[in-house]
Design a protein that fits this description.
The chain has about 90 residues and is mostly helical. Helices cover about 60% and strands about 0% of the residues. It is elongated. About 5% of the residues are buried.
Length: about 90
């Protein structure tokens, strides 16, 4: 991990001064992969990333209710199989 100052310096040399990776490596004494990582750091970062709605959003309430009912019924069935007294019903 390189300090933020060196990260900024690598990006400045590459983008503003148009130095090649090999020149930056020999000047700063860092590994070529470090320079490449610093250059491509923001390449795949979205600014203001947005979460798109899920296809399941309209059905989430139904799915949750159905699963809750299923869990409740399975719980009752399991208690009955074990011979436990039903509580609350």
């Amino acid at each position: 991990m390189i300090p933020p100052e060196q990260h900024a310096e690598i990006r400045r040399l590459f983008y503003a001064e148009h130095w090649r990776v090999g020149t930056i490596v020999s000047t700063l004494g860092v590994h070529p992969d470090t320079v490449r990582r610093a250059i491509e750091h923001d390449r795949f970062v979205r600014s203001g990333s947005q979460i798109r709605p899920s296809l399941l959003d309209p059905y989430k309430a139904f799915i949750t209710a159905t699963l809750d009912l299923l869990i409740e019924r399975l719980g009752r069935r399991r208690r009955a199989e074990l011979g436990w007294a039903q509580r609350g019903n």
